[in-house]
Specification:
The protein is 57% helix and 7% strand. The protein is of the alpha+beta class. The relative contact order is 0.15.
């Protein structure tokens, strides 16, 4: 099994962390959709990472789908609850964290364009999604040791990957201090071997 992605992609990091937490053997292959576009497009028509390539050659794209598949490969630890309400809560937090990431990545890409071509209003719109999303997540997890329930779930991993990317690309905004509840959960995850083994950069 191979995970195709980049070391700067928070979505790739999410599925790598899931695989490591589940103890699933895999090969990590670095291929950039920006630089190595043709190889990535050959395995994912959307030209995005991560992509999971199974031993039979079949592929899965999109980090939530890959994370769900990996979680189903081994019964323990269970990162997506089987009970419907808890599972829905985990997937909801994952979706919001991923949505914050989507907006932050778009800001990052826009910032790489020549200054005269950058859309200030469009960037501000994306930042609005980031701020609203983080404020929602911070309120959601206040007073909790984990995002949902007592054990580690994909929700915790998604939130930590989201905050790590914001600190990686936009450190000057001091995200953890401004959102202390998600910051506390993320800080605990950053010390786990799965996160130490998958640094952004």
């Amino acid at each position: 099994m191979r995970i195709i992605g980049t070391t700067t992609s928070p979505y790739t990091r999410k599925v790598r962390v899931v695989a490591l937490e589940k103890g699933i053997a895999h090969e990590f292959v670095v291929q950039s959709p920006m630089v190595d576009s043709e190889p990535v497009q050959a395995i994912n028509p959307l030209g995005k990472v991560p992509v999971l390539v199974r031993d039979d050659g079949s592929r899965l794209v999109d980090s939530p789908l890959i994370a769900e598949y990996l979680d189903g490969l081994a019964p323990s630890p269970r990162l997506l609850p089987q009970e419907a309400a808890a599972r829905e809560a985990v997937r909801q937090i994952e979706a919001i964290a991923d949505g914050v990431l989507d907006a932050a990545v778009l800001v990052r890409l826009e910032s790489l364009r020549p200054a005269p071509l950058r859309g200030a209003e469009w960037i501000a719109w994306q930042w609005g999604k980031v701020h609203r999303g983080l404020a929602h997540l911070d309120a959601e997890v206040e007073g909790r040791a984990r995002c949902v329930g007592d054990g580690l779930t994909v929700a915790d991993i998604a939130v930590a990957c989201c905050l790590a990317y914001l600190e990686f690309r936009f450190a000057e905004r001091d995200w953890r201090a401004r959102h202390s509840h998600v910051g506390r959960i993320a800080a605990e995850l950053f010390a786990r071997p799965s996160f130490v083994a998958t640094p952004l950069g």
